[in-house]
Amino acid sequence: MKTSLLITVPLLLLTSMLSQAAVNGSILWYLEQEAGIEPYRVRYLVTEDFMRTDEGDGAGGFALFDRGTRQGYSVSPENRTVLRIDGKGQLPETPQQLDIRIKQSVDARTPRVENQVPVTVELTADGDLCYTAVVVPGFPGPARAAFQEFADSLAVQQLRTLENTPVQFRTPCFLSRYLYAADFQMRRGVPLVEWNDQGERRELIDYQIGVELDEQLFRLPEGYDMIRPSGQPDSRNE
Fold first, then answer.
1. Three-state secondary-structure class, residue 233
2. Which of 8, 59, 130, 235 could potentially form a cystine with 173 if both were Cys, beta carbons 3.0 to 4.6 Å apart?
């Protein structure tokens, strides 16, 4: 009986391990901060097909971005809902009356990351400094492209709902940061640190490249209600 048990248990474990498909990707940990709250850790799991954002424990909600279809999903286990954000569409063209400029500088004395010298990028709109980022060009893995695609998708969605934003909040910096130049830093590299004077900040604190990730992490849960940004049920229930 003991011999049979000792043989059976490893075989069951091996079968379980083989049934969990893995996909190659990158893990990036950022320390993020918004105005008025304490910094918090966010994990980004990135593959050639998906990007998942969560807190790393697998217990709470998460966001999933399908890079192929440009669809974003925000999963809430508490409400058993999935908020679907359609990011497919054309990026808006910058109006002539909005003066957006991007300044780039390099300090050779800055420590290299992945053998690359970080680049400082500043976004200004109508003469006001809106956002600053220090990015790593040539960062290996799919993260840079995924970040850019996600930023572009959010800009497409922002354009659809722009009329819902009060006019007084549609400042040159708001329009440039979230609509007309949403991916300004991602075009140049993976953010090492980025910030503005409104208390927003994000800093890369750890990363792994070329690791095996559980394919299940990039699937939506079954039995959840699919809703649109308006909060109305999506009749397609995709």
1. strand
2. 130
Q: What's this model's pTM, rounded to 2 decimal places?
A: 0.86
Query: What is the bridge-based pairing of β-strands 40-46 and 22-33?
Result: antiparallel
Give the SS3 label for residue 154.
helix
- Compute the Cα dihedral for 172, 228, 67, 35 and give only its sign: positive
Tell me how far apart the alpha carbons of residues 130 and 126 are, in angstroms, rounded to a whole number. 10
Q: Contacts by 49-55 with C-beta closer than 8 Å and gap 24+?
A: 49/23, 49/218, 50/218, 51/146, 51/147, 51/150, 52/217, 52/218
Instruction: Using only the alpha carbons of the chain, give its radius of gyration.
Output: 21
b/e 64-94 (16+ beta carbons within 10 angstroms → b): bbbbeebbbbbbeeeeebbbbbebeeeeeee
